[in-house]
């Protein structure tokens, strides 16, 4: 990467313009092509992202199975609904275990590859960009063992290259609407608080080696993969660990790598629903003791300083917040999502909402769309509109500070 960013001077008008103009290397409008000369332009082409969660990444008894976690098989109607709702890019997490053979070829079952390709085709026909990855394959992507034994590490790299070579060959004629993401949240079981904290950086070094193996494997397949955009995750996709340890792989293509991180701060509000309020107007007794607006700005600012300002695109491959049945708690959810999306845009990153298909409320319930019909779940339309405001609003007066002052639910003191 040798492109540098001038700062956060991009206006909402510039983002909107990028949504309709033709950019180098695509031949189509940005809504169906990933492109850009700067990280801000790449983020604009990704726009607002959505995750097909708990679907092709689901598994049972060590074998990936699309409906194993309760979602029906997806249809074209779902992706048409996503496009109609205003999403730009879909991340399709894919678990491959149970569907490939042994060494040295690790041959992927044709029927399984065909289904992945079919789902990618749904998104392509809907006019969406796509990210495809290797997701819940941590049993063979065992970074703890690989860090402790170089023979294991070499075996893992060979397997990773073999799997990605097959995926890349299958899709090498697809246009630049399609990107690949090396892996998901790789860690040793401690979610960033395990042996990685005391192994003198060994796991981080292995992670960087795996990212390099992925890039090398994809580029070697030629075709459109020669300069396809590739997502490379930090260890456990953690922002702080990314700043500490991430090394951008060497690449034969110029400016075609993107760093992937995830953001669910604070977990007690965003994922677990044990806290019902968030932000500066929230009741201290009902919100987490950390993770308010200043944390969003601080974490995203770290990404900007460490990577975006140095010409390295960053996307938030997963973010989100679970549905609440209580109206006040849901209002805080909407504020959180709008604030996070607006902050992501201002700091130069595209956010991808994690939708797991859950139609209820509370912990792990983050569904927005019916997987068969593409119709709304719960108040999905309201949720998407909040996120779209954060990403696509053109009015120059719509600033992050304005969202802070005008979108936060009325606080306890304000009600008195």
Automatic annotation (TrEMBL):
Record InterPro entries: GH, Glyco_hydro_5, Glycosyl_hydrolase_5
Residue ranges annotated for the Glycoside hydrolase family domain, each copy included: 66-358
PROSITE patterns associated with the record: PROKAR_LIPOPROTEIN
Hydrolase recorded as keyword: yes
GO terms assigned for molecular function: hydrolase activity
Keyword terms: Carbohydrate metabolism, Cellulose degradation, Glycosidase, Hydrolase, Polysaccharide degradation
TM annotation in the entry: none
Record-linked PANTHER family: ENDOGLUCANASE, PUTATIVE (AFU_ORTHOLOGUE AFUA_5G01830)-RELATED, GLUCAN ENDO-1,6-BETA-GLUCOSIDASE B
Family note: Belongs to the glycosyl hydrolase 5 (cellulase A) family.
Protein name: Glycoside hydrolase family 5 protein
Source species taxonomy: Bacteria, Pseudomonadati, Bacteroidota, Bacteroidia, Bacteroidales
């Amino acid at each position: 990467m040798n492109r540098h960013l001038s700062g956060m001077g991009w206006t909402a008008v510039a983002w909107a313009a990028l949504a309709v103009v033709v950019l180098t290397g695509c031949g189509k409008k940005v809504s169906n092509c990933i492109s850009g000369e700067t990280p801000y332009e790449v983020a604009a082409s990704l726009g607002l992202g959505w995750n097909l969660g708990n679907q092709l990444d689901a598994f049972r008894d060590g074998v990936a199975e699309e409906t194993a976690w309760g979602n029906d098989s997806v249809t074209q109607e779902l992706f048409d609904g996503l496009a109609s709702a205003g999403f730009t890019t879909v991340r399709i997490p894919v678990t491959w275990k149970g569907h490939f053979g042994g060494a040295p070829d690790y041959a992927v079952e044709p029927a399984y590859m065909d289904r992945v390709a079919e789902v990618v085709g749904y998104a392509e026909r809907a006019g969406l960009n796509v990210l495809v990855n290797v997701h819940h394959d941590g049993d063979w992507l065992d970074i703890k063992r690989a860090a402790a034994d170089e023979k294991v590490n070499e075996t893992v790299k060979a397997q990773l290259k073999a799997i990605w070579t097959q995926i890349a060959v299958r899709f090498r004629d697809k246009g630049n609407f399609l990107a690949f993401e090396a892996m998901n949240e790789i860690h040793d079981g401690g979610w960033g608080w395990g042996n990685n904290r005391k192994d003198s950086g060994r796991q981080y070094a292995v992670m960087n080696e795996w990212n390099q193996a992925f890039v090398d494997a994809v580029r070697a397949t030629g075709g459109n993969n020669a300069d396809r955009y590739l997502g490379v995750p930090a260890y456990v996709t953690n922002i702080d660990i990314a700043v500490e340890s991430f090394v951008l792989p060497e690449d034969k293509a110029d400016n075609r790598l993107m760093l992937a991180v995830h953001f669910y701060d604070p977990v007690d509000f965003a994922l677990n629903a044990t806290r019902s309020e968030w932000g500066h107007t929230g009741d201290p007794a009902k919100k987490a003791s950390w993770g308010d607006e200043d944390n969003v700005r601080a974490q995203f600012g770290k990404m900007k300083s460490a990577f975006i300002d140095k010409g390295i695109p960053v996307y938030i491959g997963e973010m989100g917040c679970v549905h609440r049945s209580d109206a006040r708690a849901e209002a805080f959810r909407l504020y959180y999502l709008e604030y996070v999306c607006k902050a992501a845009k201002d700091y130069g990153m595209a956010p991808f909402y994690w939708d797991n298909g859950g139609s209820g409320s509370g912990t792990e319930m983050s569904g927005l769309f019916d997987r068969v019909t593409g119709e709304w779940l719960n108040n999905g339309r309201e949720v998407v509109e909040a996120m779209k405001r954060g990403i696509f609003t053109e009015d120059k007066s719509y600033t992050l500070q304005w969202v802070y002052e005008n979108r936060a639910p009325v606080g306890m003191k304000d009600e008195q």
